[in-house]
Amino acid sequence: MKVLLYQRGEKALSKSGIGRAMKHQVRALTEAGVPFTTDENDSYDIVHINTVDLAARAMANKAHKEGKKVVYHAHSTEEDFRNSFIFSNQLSPLFKMHIISSYELGDYILTPTPYAKQILESYGIEKPIQAVSNGIDLARFTHDDSKVKAFREYFNLPEDRKVIISVGLYFERKGLPDFMEVARALPEYTFIWFGHTPLASVTSKVRDAIREKPNNVILPGYIKGDIIEGAYASADVFFFPSYEETEGIVVLEALASRCQTIVRDIGVYDPWLVHEESCYKGNSIRDFVYLIRAYLRDELPSTTEAAYKVAEERSIKEIGIQLKDVYERVLKGEY
């Protein structure tokens, strides 16, 4: 068995969750001992595709013509396309049609969570669908004092300063306006949102939120390496108010870093993240203000150890084992 990991476009997607998932797949197959190639001209038995662009669709059709099997990884839904950038809501019905026709090119469909699987099934897709996490590199997020120091020095943060972070594109769906309002209600703490999107492409609500941000919010843009890894390790809270996800790799990164995690109570986290067990969940700005303040005042217990166990179950090593099983079954026609 030899797998072609179709990686065209990986560099352009490197700052996105899909790009990180593609990198994780390379690591996962390496750790699982699965022979693979990223060269489209190499020999292979099965191709694993993560994108829905025209070149990816052509790759799937080419594989079928050559009698090869196709595993299509469904990272996107209409639901998480909406409320992202200008005109995304108007375009979402067309996007839904496009992704359905793309995913149906697969002999087998993977998607990150049971929630995403349910959405795809509701579209009427009849191909077999399995939930397999995008995975997390536990070693990358092991606590490292030098990374913590790098983060706090970069932002000139005193040791006793309480810090709340989030990571994501400047999308309305990600909850950035709510993040600003929560920060406004908690001026005694520093809030940092890592990530960036050109303001010309975002909604007016997001532009207004950024223009009117409170003084205790820092927007450093996209940062990788020791600074962001030190942020996860050093921050007091990872606060992710997103309204819609197919998984949320940044949430896995927070869990793996043992950073106290607070998320919106949305379907994607069921059943793997449990309120008051492995995280805290809220539904409103009032909820989030209460949860952050109560936790930082030691009025709520930490859930980080249970959260880390959730991350362990989604380690890259474990995902490699699951992908190997999928490939073997697909090649045998055991759907």
Q: In short, what is this structure?
A:
By secondary structure, the chain is an alpha/beta fold. It has 13 helices and twelve strands.
Question: What does it look like?
Answer:
The protein has 335 residues and is α/β, with parallel strands linked by helices. Helices cover 42% and strands 14% of the residues. The longest helix has 17 residues, at 316-332. The strands form two sheets. A six-stranded parallel sheet has the order 2-1-3-4-5-6, sandwiched between helices. The protein has a six-stranded parallel sheet with strand order 9-8-7-10-11-12, sandwiched between helices. Helix 1 (17-32) crosses helix 13 (316-332) and helix 6 (145-154) packs across helix 9. The chain has 13 helices and twelve strands.
Low-confidence stretches: none
Structural class: alpha/beta
Report Rg: 20 Å
List the helices and strands in order: EHEEHEHHEHEHEHEHEHEHEEHHH
Distance between the termini: 17 Å
Largest pleated sheet: 6 strands, parallel
* Oligomeric composition of the shown chains: single chain
Overall mean pLDDT = 96
Q: Taking strands numbered 1, 2, ... along the chain, how are they ordered across the largest sheet? A: 2-1-3-4-5-6
Count of discrete alpha- or pi-helical segments spanning 4 or more residues = 13
The share of residues in helices is: 40-55%
SS strand fraction: 5-15%
Beta-strand segment tally: 12
Overall form: globular
